[in-house]
Amino acid sequence: MASVTPVASPLATATPDTRLLQGLLPSDFGGSEAHTFAVGEEMLARLTAELGLAPGDLEVAFASDHGTNFVQMYAVRAPGHSAGETLAALALVAYPDARETTTVTERRMGVRMVTIIGEPTEAESLGTLYCVADGQVLIVAQAFDKAVAEAAFDELPSADSRDY
């Protein structure tokens, strides 16, 4: 199994993060309205189990572009867990048939440090996961192309314009 080194994340605050998750994600991608229906439900069910949460306890919002620049974004909050703990668990469950060859790396993408969870064989059909922590929330972009993921992160609302 891939060795997972959790990325340093801010310590969980005493006050729960109650921001609306949908407000943390793009409302559109390059001018095309984002789809907000649930995607990646099997992976999210595995993540819920890995974190020891009951079904329905994992809080998730979605924003996707299923056009030419395919990307699925998730804002994930796991009650009782930091974004770093959620990230470490996601790395363990992202590619269940390829745990031994899953890699976790960090790379700067634009202005952000991004944790990349990938697996060479599975990424062809499932894409690669690009992750950033936003307080207690993990923002994930699932894409086949790094440039598409980077463009999706560029569409994230600024802190000034978010719905809280």
Task: Please outline what is shown here.
This protein has 164 residues and is of the alpha+beta class.
Task: Annotate the secondary structure layout.
Layout (H helix, E strand, L loop, with lengths): L27 E2 L2 E2 L7 H10 L8 E7 L5 E7 L5 H11 L9 E7 L2 E7 L4 H4 L1 E7 L2 E7 L2 H9 L10
Antiparallel strand pairs: 1-2, 3-4, 4-8, 5-6, 6-7, 7-8
Structural key phrases:
single chain, 164 residues, alpha+beta, six-stranded antiparallel beta sheet, two-stranded antiparallel ribbon, globular
**How many individual helices?**
4
Fraction of residues in β-strands: 25-35%
Flag low-confidence runs.
8-13
Please bin the fraction of helical residues: 10-25%
Shape descriptor reads globular
Radius of gyration: 15 Å
Number of strands: 8
Order of the strands making up the biggest sheet: 3-4-8-7-6-5
Round the mean pLDDT to the nearest integer and report it: 88
Largest sheet: 6 strands, antiparallel
Based on secondary structure, the structural category is alpha+beta
- SSE string: EEHEEHEEHEEH
The first-to-last residue Cα distance is: 38 Å
